[in-house]
Amino acid sequence: DTGVSQDPRHKITKRGQNVTFRCDPISEHNRLYWYRQTLGQGPEFLTYFQNEAQLEKSRLLSDRFSAERPKGSFSTLEIQRTEQGDSAMYLCASSLGQGRNNEQFFGPGTRLTVL
Amino acid sequence: QQQVKQSPQSLIVQKGGIPIINCAYENTAFDYFPWYQQFPGKGPALLIAIRPDVSEKKEGRFTISFNKSAKQFSLHIMDSQPGDSATYFCAAQPNDYKLSFGAGTTVTVRA
C-alpha cells in the first residue's frame, strides 16, 4: 500500500453515461498525476496538478474528460459520454514535487469497462 | 510516439536466474529513470530509480545499470524468485515532471 487511494476500484458503465473517479494522494504530496493504462501497455500521462492548479493536459485528454483538485488534496477525474475506447485502467500518482524528491507513487487504479 | 523503448516484451527464467530488461531513450532532458513492478490488477509499485550521474545502483536483488552516452539503462534481477513474476516497466522523467513509460516486460520465474 503506497498511501495513494482510488475509488471505485472497478466501474462498469454503458456507453454514453458519465463516470467520476476519485483519488486521494499521500497527504503531504503537492503534485498529483493521472495516467491511463490499456491492456499490455505502459501507463500514459493524462494530466497533473501542482496543489490545486492543473498545469498540463495531454492530447489524450479529449474535451469529454475533466479533472479537478479543488483544495489541493483529493482529485476527481470525470469522463462524460463514455465511449468503448475509454475502457482502461485509470491510475493516480502523487509526488512531493520538490526538485529531486520527485518519486511518483501510484494508487491501485480504477478499472473502467464501457459496454 | 513512445519516448522510451523497452525490450524484451516477455521473458522466462528459472528460479535463481537473472532476468535482464533493457530500455533506451532519445530525449536528453530526461534526468530520472525509475523502474516499476506491477502485478495483475494492481497499480505500478516503485522498485528502484537512478539518475544519470551514476552508472549503477543496487537495492537488494535489483540492480540498475545506466549508460549515459548510449542513452540506455537496464534492470537486473539477481537470484530471481517465483514471487518476482510480474510486469516491469522502465520510465523516464525530465526535471520533476510527467513519466514516460516503456511498454513493459512480463517476467515469469519458474520454480
Task: Provide key terms for this protein.
heterodimer; A: 115 residues; mainly beta; seven-stranded mixed β-sheet; four-stranded antiparallel β-sheet; 11 strands; 49% strand; B: six-stranded mixed β-sheet; 0% helix; globular
User: What's the main sheet of chain B like?
Assistant: 6 strands, mixed
Which percent band covers the strand fraction of chain B? over 45%
What is the CA-CA span between the terminal residues of chain A? Answer: 30 Å
Indicate the structural class of chain A: mainly beta
Report the count of strand segments of chain B: 11
User: What percent of residues of chain A adopt helix (DSSP H or I)?
Assistant: under 10%
Q: Report the mean per-residue pLDDT of chain A as an integer.
A: 93
Q: What's the assembly state of these chains?
A: heterodimer
The helix-and-strand class of chain B reads mainly beta
Query: Which of globular, elongated, flat, extended, rod-shaped describes the shape of chain A?
Result: globular
Show unreliable segments of chain B.
none
**What order do the SSEs of chain A take from the amino end to the carboxyl end, as H and E?**
EEEEEEEEEEE
General form of chain B: globular
Most extensive protein-chain contact, per-chain counts: A-B, 29 and 23 residues
Number of helices of chain B: 0
Mean residue pLDDT of chain B: 95
Radius of gyration of chain B: 13 Å
The major sheet of chain A is characterized as: 7 strands, mixed
Work out the strand percent of chain A. Answer: over 45%
Provide a count of the helices of chain A: 0
Q: Uncertain spans of chain A, ≥5 residues at pLDDT below 50?
A: none
